[in-house]
Each structure stands twice: as C-alpha cells, then as structure tokens.
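Review session, final week

We close the course with one last complete record, chosen because it touches almost every idea we covered. It is Ribosomal RNA small subunit methyltransferase NEP1, a protein from Clavispora lusitaniae with 292 residues. Go through it on your own first, then we will talk.
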Amino acid sequence: MSSTKQAKADKNKTEKMDKTEKTEKTDRIDSKIDKTDKTDKTNSTESKTDKMDKTDKTDVPPASFVPMRPQALTSKDKDTRRLVVVLSQACLETHKISASGGDKYALLNCDDHQGLLRKMGRDIAEARPDITHQCLLTLLDSPINKAGRLQVFIHTARGVLIEVNPSVRIPRTFKRFSGLMVQLLHKLSIRSVNSEEKLLKVIKNPISDHLPTKCRKVTLSFDAEIKRVQDYVETLDEDESICVFVGAMARGQDNFADEFVDEKIGLSNYPLSASVACSKFCHGCEDVWGIM
C-alpha cells in the first residue's frame, strides 16, 4: 500500500513539474511576442519619423510668382508696339422699355426682343450684342493682353467709338454685360470702384486719331488671300504695330473699314466666328513676339 501511495505522489509531482515547465515556456513565448510587437511598433514609428524627416529635408520648389501686370496701354501712347483690335459694326443699342417702376432701358438683342424687332421692321441678325461680348472675353483673357501689348476698341453700328481699358473685367454672363453696356452708352464712361480710372469710355471719332503713329491696318475678310498670322506678323517692322478690324456682326459686307485699312487678309479656308478670328490673331502675335 505504501509503495502505491508513493508511486501516486511521484506521479503528481511529475505532472506538476510538467505543468510548471509548460507555463514557463508559454510565458517566455508570450514575452518574446510582446517584445517583438514592441520592436515592430518602435521600428514602424522610427520609419515614419525617418520618412517625415526625409520629407522635411526635401528641397521645396520655389513659389511660382505671377508676373506683375504692365501699365495699361492708352490711345495717348503712340510708340509702344502692340496689337490693336477694333470690333467694327458692333450691335450695341439701347431701347426704352416701359415698366411699372417707370421707364427702363435694355440692350437690344435677338433673344429677348424678337417681337420688337419685327415691329421695327429690322432683321434679327442686327441685334447680336453677344458677339461683342464673346470677342471681349476672348481678347481680354489672352496672354498678349496680360503682357500689356493689346489695345481694344469697339465701333458700334450706330457710329459710337468706345475705348476699352486692358485691365477691365468684363462680366462673364450676358445679362450682366447687357446692364454694363446700357450704363456705358448712357453715362459715356464706366469708372473703377477703387479709383477714378475709366475702364470703358466713349471717345471721339475717327479711330485713326487713336492708333499708334506707325501702324499697319488690315481687315479680316473671307474673300481675301489666306495668310498665316505668324508669317504675316513677321513682315512688320520692329517698331511697327498692327491694327485689325474685325466685324462683330452675324453677317454683312466687309467694307466697314475700307477708308482706314491698307489691305484685307483671310485667316482660314473656313468661315470663322469673330471670336475665333480674334483668338487666331492674338496667338499669332504672341508666337512672333515671344509672349508665353
């Protein structure tokens, strides 16, 4: 009996020792895992820190500064070489509209005043101020204007001559543009809010009095000989400006500037809108004069 009890006691001791060894091994493994996790976290943190350090050390490119806008051209400056665009036969005409609040004026256009145009016996194509609006946006957004080498005039179908300041911001929407033109035609000038500078003003005819001293004058015509704008501009003298008369109308003859121009040229084998014609001439001058 005593031997049996002794055997059981030895067996229990052995099992306890095995359990203790297993527990110790498990604890060792867990501690190793914990250490490994901590090491991994530390390494990942260090790697992130290294990346941040590298990012901080990376050379940051210098800021891109917008070049300062040159002083705006005026008709008094007769020497600076430039591109002058005259929007001829522009459909800018106001009409009195009676309303409950009194008499108001609106810019006559083919969309809003079709009935009125019929009563007046006039062609709808005669009321297209949107063409002038598109041309002004194209011209004033161009790099050549921002470089201070563009001057714009508007010569309406009624014979009103308007000088456009290169720094003016033409409204993007036609409705706001119409209101601005009505105000201009009635007050004869539009001044800047922040200064007394005139952004738009009605000036005296003829247009030739406001052009540079040495200036070649051309009219764009679909029937004339087609010339590449860049090649044509290269034929100018180094101190010679160029004035382009563009018809800001839906249709009509190209004889609106015959008394002023030296010659007529074509730009394409296809009919072009006035806005596209303005764009092509601006790009041609920019390429030749190195304006980016």
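Two points worth writing down before the exam:
Residues 51-58 have pLDDT under 50 and may be disordered.
The two ends are 111 Å apart (CA to CA).
Good luck, everyone.
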